[in-house]
Amino acid sequence: AFFANKVEHESRHCNGKVLQRQGSSSFDRVYTANQNCGHAYPTFLAVLWCAGLLCSQAPAAFAGLMYLFVRQKYFVGYLGERTQSTPGYLFGKRIILFLFLMSLAGILNYYLVFFFGSDFEIHIKTITSAISPLLLIP
To answer: What is the pTM of this model?
Structure first.
């Protein structure tokens, strides 16, 4: 909602009309940042849901909140200069990778239980809980 509000505000500020694509470079930056964030959310939601369901909910929720914060930083950085958005983008990629690895560990544990009877769920939850605070390191 924040991103869409910013696009609408910038559109009205630059053009005087609602949501026209042609406009100043500031409108183009806001519009592009909004589109980039919108295109990244389905992937984020899929890996967040899988990581929470298959592995551990607390580290997945922490990573999800961090990702939302990072996307906000990316969006605001994109409004300035495009180079200011790079740290937010790279940080977001790292969080998505963490969530993907959590999902992969949960799937691997399921198949280990199914085929061999070995359950490593406690170990996986301990490792992901220990690694999740490392996401705070820029």
So the answer is: 0.79
Burial 74-96 (b: 16+ CB within 10 A, else e): bbebbeeeeeebeebbebbebbb
Longest dimension (CA), the chain: 66
In this structure, what is the dihedral angle of CA atoms 52, 56, 60, 61, given to the nearest 10 degrees?
90
**CB of 95 closer than 8 Å to CB of 88:** no
**Residues whose CB is less than 8 angstroms from the CB of residue 44 and which lie 6 or more positions away in sequence, other chains included:** 64, 67, 96, 99
CA separation for the pair 106, 109 (Å, rounded) = 5
- 34: burial class by Cβ within 10 Å (0-12, 13-18, 19+)? buried
Q: Give the count of domains, the chain.
A: 1
Q: What is the CATH number of the domain that holds 41?
A: 1.20.120.550
What domain range includes position 82?
Answer: 1-136
Query: pLDDT of 43-65, one tens digit each?
Result: 999 999 999 999 989 999 999 99
